[in-house]
């Protein structure tokens, strides 16, 4: 059976809509109004609620490596690159988890995100030598946002290739401390995290649509008091870790992460405050030394 041309189908659809608008102009105005209203809600209300001081932006609009589409999920939001098969940034807010709250059963399969163009799947990582590394963590999303938050964290648009020693040891430690230590310390902490690409482009042997990052970043931001500037803590962690290093070894500033990712964070923060916060390296307020070293077994 001969397949219809996509161009022909689109022309028929447009012609149908044109005829409908002539016959039922009021109906078309209602549909148009609903569409604009939905878009306005998404951009003006839903997305800002998941962002601290504006959405991240590409520092160079001509650099396609830093282009992304914003995808909103339950409990977190991200900028996804179909070109790289990776989220370039993921943002979520943390509050302390309820003590002794039972954990939801972990899903045994990751799901392809219907919104992705490149259709990265669970099978894309099989026999690749890399773990499926969560960016918005399963533990935090499931404890704070329930089964829906956990399900969204298992979408492949939230996943990036990580070496096992990073994913299962050092990165996991950092994910635990951000909710059990940092969030408990301040009450609420904003997190932006994602991959860093540098040098030669390398892709998964099992799926060439997925680029392999060289390192990963985590940025924590919190407000300690009303009318006071926020404080930040940032990490830049390479894929090559052995997993047992102290977390303090990877502390950096936001300026360095922006330079390496080509992404501008906290775009709505006052320029003077932004310049100070993004250049500073302040471990003391976060009591990092208390959790820097891995626990002894």
UniProtKB/TrEMBL annotation:
GO MF, any single term: metal ion binding
Active-site residues (renumbered): 134 (proton acceptor)
UniProt-listed Gene3D superfamilies: Extracellular Endonuclease, subunit A
Binding annotation for Mg(2+): 167
Annotated ranges, domain ENPP1-3/EXOG-like endonuclease/phosphodiesterase: 73-272
DNA/RNA non-specific endonuclease/pyrophosphatase/phosphodiesterase domain residues: 72-272
Keywords: Endonuclease, Hydrolase, Metal-binding, Nuclease
Entry-linked InterPro entries: DNA/RNA_non-sp_Endonuclease_sf (IPR044929), Endo_G_ENPP1-like_dom (IPR001604), ENPP1-3/EXOG-like_nuc-like (IPR020821), His-Me_finger_sf (IPR044925), Non-specific_endonuclease (IPR040255)
Pfam families membership: Endonuclease_NS
Keyword Transit peptide carried by entry: no
Metal-binding is among the record's keywords: yes
SUPFAM superfamilies reported in the protein's UniProt record: His-Me finger endonucleases
Name of the protein this chain belongs to: DNA/RNA non-specific endonuclease
Source species taxonomy: Bacteria, Pseudomonadati, Pseudomonadota, Gammaproteobacteria, Methylococcales
């Amino acid at each position: 059976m001969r397949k219809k041309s996509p161009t022909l189908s689109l022309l028929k659809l447009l012609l149908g809509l044109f005829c409908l608008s002539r016959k039922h102009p009021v109906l078309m105005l209602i549909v148009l109004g609903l569409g604009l209203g939905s878009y306005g809600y998404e951009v003006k209300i839903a997305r800002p609620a998941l962002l601290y001081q504006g959405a991240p932006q590409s520092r160079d609009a001509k650099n396609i490596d830093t282009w992304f589409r914003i995808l909103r999920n339950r409990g977190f939001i991200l900028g996804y690159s179909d070109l790289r098969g990776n989220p370039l940034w993921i943002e979520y807010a943390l509050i302390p988890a309820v003590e002794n709250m039972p954990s939801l059963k972990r899903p045994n399969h990751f799901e392809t995100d219907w919104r992705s163009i490149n259709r990265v799947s669970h099978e894309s990582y099989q026999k690749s030598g890399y773990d499926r590394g969560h960016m918005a963590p399963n533990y935090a999303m499931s404890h704070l946002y329930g089964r829906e938050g956990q399900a969204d964290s298992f979408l492949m648009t939230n996943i990036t290739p990580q070496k096992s020693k990073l994913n299962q040891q050092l990165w996991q430690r950092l994910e635990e401390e951000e909710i059990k230590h940092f969030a408990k310390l301040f009450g609420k902490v904003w997190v932006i995290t994602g991959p860093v690409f540098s040098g030669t482009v390398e892709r998964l042997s099992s799926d060439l649509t997925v680029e392999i990052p060289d390192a990963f970043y985590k940025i924590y931001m919190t407000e300690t008091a009303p009318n006071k500037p926020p404080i930040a803590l940032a990490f830049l962690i390479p894929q090559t870790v052995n997993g047992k290093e102290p977390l303090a070894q990877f502390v950096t500033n936001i300026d360095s992460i922006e330079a390496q990712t080509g992404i501008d964070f906290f775009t709505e923060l006052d320029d003077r405050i932004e310049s100070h916060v993004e250049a500073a390296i302040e471990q003391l307020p976060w009591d990092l030394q208390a959790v820097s070293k891995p626990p002894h077994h």
